[in-house]
Design goal:
Keywords: Methyltransferase, Transferase. With 481 residues, the chain is an alpha/beta fold. The chain has 17 helices and 10 strands. It has helices spanning 2-9, 15-18, 31-45, 49-63, 81-87, 92-103, 127-142, 162-172, 184-194, 202-217, 233-244, 249-282, 350-366, 390-401, 421-434, 443-454, 477-480; strands at 72-74, 77-79, 177-179, 221-223, 291-298, 326-332, 336-342, 375-380, 407-412, 465-471. Strands 9-8-5-6-7-10 form a 6-stranded mixed beta sheet, sandwiched between helices. The protein has a two-stranded antiparallel sheet with strand order 1-2. The protein has a two-stranded parallel sheet with strand order 3-4. α14 links the parallel β8 (375-380) and β9 (407-412). Mean pLDDT is 76; it is low at 118-124 and 148-173.
Length: 481
């Protein structure tokens, strides 16, 4: 794929024939932009053809002014239609079909029936079924989250059998995602809000949903059941308002609209993080990377009690108060995986976070990578313990003022919507600690088990280096900085 993309960027577009000084392929010849293009192509490679058509259809619709399609935008650069087709590796027939749909002002992207199930034949297909399919695709991309610790207790439509989608998971090897907890009535209200001119009854919604879910989303999409995790306050408030205003259609529709706007905002935050993560992974092989993305978060202390032994389950140890370890992970996407454990006597404050970040950046120097021209993007949740504090901000300002890094940025996700890849890693770690009858008598036993787990090839394959350490003391950075 890299060689073919490089050959495409070395060519000429149709604009170069009319204007010799202009070539739409030229901006992508720069190494940084070329790596970003490769990352975008790999992202599209994980989608099926209908999802790629939907992405291209949205770009064409955005560039259409009612008369003709003007300059298209690809990774921040204006390109002509031929360059857009060549860079995204789209066929002429597919682009012609999408352009015709945009000019006809269709409400949704046309479906290529060759890549649909046999039950979705043109004779049985209907506009409402296509709208439900687009709706499920939209919520799968914007609301679904990977939840490896709770996929066994998730809900699905009644007609979809559990063993069928497990077989499909083994065949396709896709990542299973889960929608936020809720009922099908709530998602029906969202569908009605998106298409106010169409009539969707609950019976029709369930019948079409069963078919579409079973044959298109049964292997990757589930509806997460209620759990003890903290929920978003804004989502809970809007859902209660929708339930209480069942007799007032206007007020209910207004609350559903506000709930959709809130979910769109949290999705845009995630898209920003995902884009930066892909860029950082594409630049991981350089000796002087331009972008480094870190994500920092701590794990529940209850999962790191020690000593851990089968004998401690006896009734005599019922009132035994076991000490706990504080576990904090710092993932440098594409580079490094760092996990720090500390005893209960060590303060788990912002100074400890700065020590872990400093150790992560020090590992770049040990590998011979220069960060003086790099931007450091640190992602975290909305809590003040890890990165949302003055101590971390002052430490990053110190690095920038001493020209250790070019710039730094701290990003936080919306409260209640902070489940990301580091939380999925914590769920896998908790499953590893529960496996078998492991005897973990000291903190060093935890370090040994976790280090063996991180050395596996199927664990964090994008991060080649890993380190697990015991933090026994912390510098007071609030006085040093």
């Amino acid at each position: 794929m890299v060689g073919r993309a490089r050959a495409i960027t070395q060519g000429k577009c149709r604009c170069s024939k009319r204007r010799r000084a202009h070539n739409c392929f030229e901006p992508f010849r720069h190494p940084g932009k070329f790596n970003e293009l490769i990352g975008h192509l790999r992202y599209l490679g994980h989608m099926d053809k209908m999802e790629v058509d939907k992405e291209a259809w949205g770009a064409l619709q955005h560039a259409y002014d009612g008369y003709k399609i003007k300059k298209l935008s690809l990774l921040g650069h204006s390109v002509c239609q031929r360059a857009f087709k060549s860079l995204l590796r789209l066929g002429s027939g597919r682009v012609r079909r999408l352009v015709e749909s945009v000019r006809n002002a269709d409400e949704s992207c046309p479906m290529d029936m060759r890549y649909c199930s046999k039950k979705f034949s043109p004779a049985m297909d209907s506009p409402k079924r296509q709208l439900v399919h687009d709706f499920l695709h939209h919520i799968c991309q914007t609301l679904a989250e990977p939840m490896p610790e709770g996929t066994g207790a998730s809900k699905r439509p009644r007609s979809v059998r559990k063993r069928d989608d497990k077989l499909m998971m083994r065949r396709t090897n896709l990542i299973e995602k889960a929608l936020p907890p809720g009922s099908f009535y709530e998602y029906l209200a969202m569908l009605r809000r998106q298409h106010p001119h169409e009539t969707f009854s609950y019976k029709l919604f369930c019948n079409v949903l069963n078919l579409v879910w079973e044959h298109n989303f049964g292997d990757i999409l589930k509806l997460r059941s209620d759990s003890a995790h903290v929920k978003c306050t804004i989502c809970v408030r809007y859902k209660l308002m929708v339930r209480k205003l069942a007799r007032c259609g206007v007020a209910r529709e207004k609350q559903v609209k506000l709930l959709e706007l809130h979910r769109e905002k949290q999705y845009l935050d995630r898209v920003t993080y995902w884009h930066s993560r892909n860029v950082a992974r594409s630049l991981a092989g350089f000796s002087a990377p331009e972008t480094v993305v870190l994500i920092c978060d701590s794990m529940d202390c209850a999962k790191f009690t020690w000593p851990k032994d089968q004998a401690l389950h006896a009734k005599e140890y019922n009132r035994f108060i076991a000490p706990k370890l504080t576990a904090t992970a710092v993932i440098a996407h594409g580079h490094d995986m760092f996990l720090g454990l500390s005893l209960s006597g060590v303060a788990s404050d912002s100074s400890r976070t700065v020590d872990l970040l400093a150790r992560t950046l020090e590992r770049f120097r040990e590998r011979g990578q220069d960060l003086r021209n790099a931007e450091i993007l640190i992602q975290g949740d909305n809590g003040p313990k890890e990165i949302k504090n003055n101590c971390v901000i002052r430490y990053l300002s110190l690095l920038v003022s001493h020209h250790k890094i070019r710039r730094a940025e701290v990003r936080t996700l919306m409260s209640g919507h902070t489940h990301e890849d580091v939380d999925a890693f914590f769920a896998n770690v908790a499953a590893v600690l529960k496996q078998g009858a492991q005897c973990l008598h000291t903190p060093f036993d935890y370090i040994r088990v976790l280090q063996e787990y991180l050395l596996r090839d199927d664990v964090r394959p994008n991060e080649g280096d890993s380190e697990v350490v015991l933090v026994d003391q912390v510098r007071d950075w609030s006085l040093e900085v």
